[in-house]
Amino acid sequence: MPVMMDPPAPRVGLVGGQWAQNVGNAFFNLGGEYVLKRIYGEDQVGFFQDQPNYRTLHNKFKGNPDTYVDFLQYLDIDTFVLQGPVLNGWIRQSWEKLFKTFQQRGIKVVFLSSAFFKFHDREIAAVKSFLEEYPPALISTRDDRSYGILKDWLPGVPKYDGIDSGWFLNRCARPFAKRADVNYIAKNFDRYPEPEILAQDPGPKFNTRVVEIEGRDWHLAVPKRLDEASHKGKIKAYFADLFDRRKLPAEFDGRMVVRPEHRFFPHVTHKIYRQPNATASDEPWTYINIYANADFTLSDRVHACVATLAFGNPAMLFTPSPRSALFGRVGIGDIRDRMVTLDLDRLQEEQEAEITWLKEHL
Fold first, then answer.
1. Angle at 220 between CA 214 and CA 222, to 5 degrees
2. Do 290 and 260 contact (CB within 8 A), yes or no?
3. What is the torsional sign of CA 336, 341, 344, 346?
4. Are residues 215 and 250 in the same domain?
5. What percent of the chain has pLDDT over 70?
6. Number of Cα atoms under 13 Å in the Cβ half of residue 291
7. Where residue 80 sits, what CATH number does that domain have?
8. Are residues 87 and 202 in the same domain?
9. What pLDDT does residue 272 have?
10. pLDDT in tens, 122-179
11. In degrees rounded to 5, what are phi and psi of residue 323?
């Protein structure tokens, strides 16, 4: 009988995690894993946890706990990969200890599908200073805005104007098909109050905008007081949510309204399950199935829209977050103004172009 050989231990460490506090992280984690396996091979890539100072409502500039064991430094790897809005103001507090160790050991550091977090001058200066001290082997961004800022930094470091790794979900996830007799839309709102979809303008107590949905104009309305509070900061937004006494409908235009909540932990039960057809999970596949089969999605979460669009369904985004810049990179930068659909042929071209470039430079 032939001897069965164990697969080799992975040599590429991909940072992942914080899924329970924002499952959208999982969408680009899984997409990035797919990209790296296309480049290095199926058995060469493994996940390891993100830093603990990224946890919700923690002052990230205070760094990781003094007693935290950053076990990555003890792994026998040759490449270390970071993704997402890791080009932030606390990059030094999060990663300096580990980067210094990697620099001494000659371990290659790669920024894949990376982006700035807030795009303000202080953040940009902090990131530039850190990267000059710990230059990576390669930087691929996920939006034109991030690429435009850093393209002239570190002349010896290859850089690519790439796409968000979440756009690769349709290549690496296989959602269930839904039953033919079931039709629904997804409404996912965390920071900002969920807009009601109304046939008529509800009046002056609401902030209302008219949006075309499936060829018809609808009034998307939120109570003014809730809307104003939600723009004053995350803590005030969560406090204001306690006073949202609305009972929102279980259906829209004859279809079920499914309400996924991306923050499983902290599990704010009163918020998650107050409205009908709600769900929350600490794993991403539930959400991928919901977005992949939705007639359309309305959300204030960037990656709820990414997941929906990657599977060919329409979406509209409701957030002023600068992290929405990643939509412009794939030609739908007006996603906050109207319902959009992604050109999947263009997406496939972008996917393959990025993988080709990475293969040539890694």
1. 160
2. yes
3. negative
4. yes
5. 99
6. 35
7. 3.40.50
8. no
9. 92
10. 999 999 999 999 999 999 999 999 999 999 999 999 999 999 999 999 999 999 999 9
11. -70, -10
